[in-house]
Design goal:
By secondary structure, this protein is an alpha+beta fold. It has three helices and five strands.
Length: 106
């Protein structure tokens, strides 16, 4: 299996990085980004380790997630790929997870 990041997930990861650079510092931002990337990589050996994402069940695409700090790494398994669809800050209202951009880029 290999990991494929959607453009939407990449943008969100960049936004998370930039947010932490501004609110904390570059070192902390790199640390958070690295933890997210490392957690995503562990899916290669354990692709079904994440729980099914309740808020995306209506899409019937079997979205799953794993947690890294305050972030959900939302993914699904498509053939022999693990598609990372979103990095979602769990401190937000979970209803935001269902916005049109997230659904289109899935």
């Amino acid at each position: 299996m290999k990991i494929v990041w959607t453009d939407f997930a990449i943008r969100n990861l960049k936004n998370i990085f930039e947010y932490h650079v501004e609110k904390a510092n570059r070192k902390i931002a790199h640390k958070i980004k690295q933890k997210i990337l490392t957690s995503a990589k562990q899916l290669i050996s354990n692709p079904e380790s994440g729980q099914l994402e309740f808020y995306l069940e209506s899409l019937n695409q079997n979205h799953r997630y794993i947690l890294e700090g305050n972030y959900k790494i939302i993914y699904r398994i498509v053939e022999s790929n693990i598609v990372i669809n979103d990095i979602f800050d769990v401190r937000q209202n979970p209803i935001k997870m269902i916005d049109e951009k997230r659904i289109i880029d899935s």
